[in-house]
Amino acid sequence: MRVLLCLCLLVPLAALAAEPVPRSHDEHSWSEPDKVVIRDLGLDLRVDFDKKEIRGSADLALEWKDPDYRVLVLDTRDLSIDRVLGKRADSGWFRLRWELGPRDPVFGQKLTIRMRKPYESVRIRYRTAPGASGLQWLEPGMTAGGKMPFMFSQSQAIHARSWVPLQDTPSVRYTYSAHVESDPSIMVLMSADNPPQTRRDGDYVFRMNQPIPSYLMAIAAGDLKFKPISTRAGVWAEPPTLEAAVAEFADTERMIQVTESLYGPYRWQRYDLLILPPSFPFGGMENPRLSFITPTVITGDKSLVSLIAHELAHSWSGNLVTNASWKDMWLNEGFTSYVENRIVEEIFGVEQAAMENVISLRDLTDEMAELDDADELLMHAPAPGRDPDDLLTDVAYVKGMWFLRFLEQRIGREPFDVFLRSWFDRHAFQSVTSEQFLAQLREYLASLETAPVSEAELVEWLQRPGMPASAPEAVSQRFAAVDRVRAAWLKGDVVARDVDVSNWITQEWVYFLDGMPDELEGSQLVELDEAFHFTGTRNGEVAMRWYPLAVRSGYFEARPSIAEFLKSIGRRKLIGPIYEALAESEEGLAFARKVFAEASAGYHPITRASFQAVLYPKAD
Ligand code: BES
Ligand code: ZN
């Protein structure tokens, strides 16, 4: 792999820039959008907690790009298809022939529907599997309230196909409506309009009249109540979590206003947050009009609310202007990380934004030390056969963001803001490629008297591994103080309980721990614990750093709290480093497997699969 890549790096710059690899096809979908596309989806579903299934029908309104084509290919994963019907405007429903292809572990099953005429609507009656990769079904005991069950979807990247048969590619956009039935005591929400005053009666209708890609399809059901933050923003959560969430995320409306002033109006009407149970596998998910949010960022001091800035920013970068395939993911995540940091800077100040940048840059550097060169490019060649969940690294997020920071620095903040706004305006409700961004950027640079960025620099940022030498730096004053404290403590010049940490926020604790040696003495860990109470912390960002340090240092006192943490949280980023540290020794691995056996029933299918692979590697 590396050898091949080195060879291709010898290709002259001009050739690389002028002849990009053809990248129009999304290799993660079986569908054929050059032949036919879905324009509207109508769902009629029932959420059945007893069977852990969603069943009903999906009506697809089709636009035939090739009028002679007679085949509709859809993506599915573990769906049971009952029947498929087709309809033309001037006719009734007809049964259509269909077949499911062999099951691919990553991409699922291709559903091929054959027809004699180009039907305008196709209706598929189907049901989901209890283990659907895009859904999690929680017993009441796994929720905050403990009384009612909960279900939620996570469709990105290619899990929508496990609960709706569709063209599961971000290059296709469609509007949708849904009628969803459930037990009357259960509230159902979707990535659509969710009027705050909706009566909880088990019969709900939704409409999303702005075209969205399939990965933004979302549904959640549980004991959910609403509280407003402003007239257009609010929080949905289980009752025990609602007040704390509203207080933590009180700045949401200000965040919307800041982003609007930079990049134009918020175009999705309402912006609500849905607080999920702690087993939610991600920090957040930008489902349109209703971001899904982990409860693990509710710390009481707003120190982790940049997550909200991030998910909100996707309303411009991602939901409005969407990467056409997952290999262009930096167009979603890099742009969003950039916008997120601008929001944080505006609302919480330059120092807070700087601290977050120092931390994410360090994460990127650490990660790149482990990655293949090919995975460090922003614009990478198609990776057929690879699970897009495996492409999820800090490269798209942090390197992507620093590329925009670099452009901002060279072009100047104000003109760059105007440029970025024009990117969002020109491609609103469209799916875009890296080549399109590059073309618009080149056109802009050519319009300037002297180009502030060279072609070679662009190639270096987009098509070379590593971080370019031209990358701006991140510096934080508050972290310089943390560095001094850590160094003095490690030298033995100061004892932990004498350090004044009264004003420290999460980022300072994170940075304090990130800079520790790989292992500490048992007595040092005891001293830190007595002074700062790391073991048993409720702050996941601290736990995900402290527990691996404790594991590597053989600090067994932390083990009961580690087990408890791993059993109560399902967010992959927080528990991953702990499982990985445990898996490094035989004894640790045995402990980890025991905890995993008890915890995994409460994990999301995605979380379960990723740690199964860490604890039971194939070679075993
Ligand atoms: N869209 C992502 C989550 C995602 C990415 C899910 C790829 C599946 C595949 C979301 O916006 C995100 O980036 N979440 C981050 C938080 C963010 C502050 C970096 C997360 O969940 O950690
Ligand atoms: Zn994101």
Beta percentage is 15-25%
**CATH superfamily membership of the domain at 30-129 and 149-217:** tricorn interacting facor f3 domain
How many separate helices? 19
- CATH level-two architecture of the domain at 30-129 and 149-217: Sandwich
Biggest beta-sheet profile: 7 strands, mixed
Bound molecules: ligand BES, zinc ion
Structural class: alpha+beta
What spatial order of strands do you see in the largest sheet?
A: 5-4-8-2-1-11-13
**What's the level 1 CATH class of the domain at 30-129 and 149-217?**
Mainly Beta
Estimate percent helicity: 25-40%
The outline comes out as globular
Separation, N- and C-terminal Cα atoms: 25 Å
Strands, count: 21
Q: Give the overall average pLDDT.
A: 94
> Mind telling me the C-alpha Rg?
25 Å
Characterization of the model:
Among the domains are: 30-129 and 149-217, tricorn interacting facor f3 domain (Immunoglobulin-like); 348-463, Neutral Protease, domain 2 (Orthogonal Bundle); 477-615, Alpha Horseshoe (Serine Threonine Protein Phosphatase 5, Tetratricopeptide repeat). The radius of gyration is 25 Å and the shape is globular. A hairpin with a 4-residue loop joins strand 1 (36-48) and strand 2 (53-64). The protein is of the alpha+beta class and 620 residues long. 37% of the residues lie in helices and 19% in strands. Helix 16 runs parallel beside helix 18 (586-599). It has helices at residues 2-8, 13-18, 239-248, 252-263, 306-313, 330-348, 350-368, 394-411, 413-426, 434-447, 455-463, 477-491, 506-514, 522-532, 540-552, 559-568, 572-582, 586-599, 605-615; strands at 36-48, 53-64, 71-76, 80-87, 93-95, 97-100, 109-114, 121-127, 135-138, 150-153, 174-181, 187-190, 203-212, 219-222, 225-228, 233-237, 271-275, 284-285, 290-293, 321-323, 430-432. Residues 1-23 have low confidence and may be disordered. It contains 19 helices and 21 strands. The strands form five sheets. A seven-stranded mixed beta sheet has the order 5-4-8-2-1-11-13, with no helix packed on it. Bound molecules: ligand BES and zinc ion. Zinc ion binds at residues 310, 314, 333, 336.
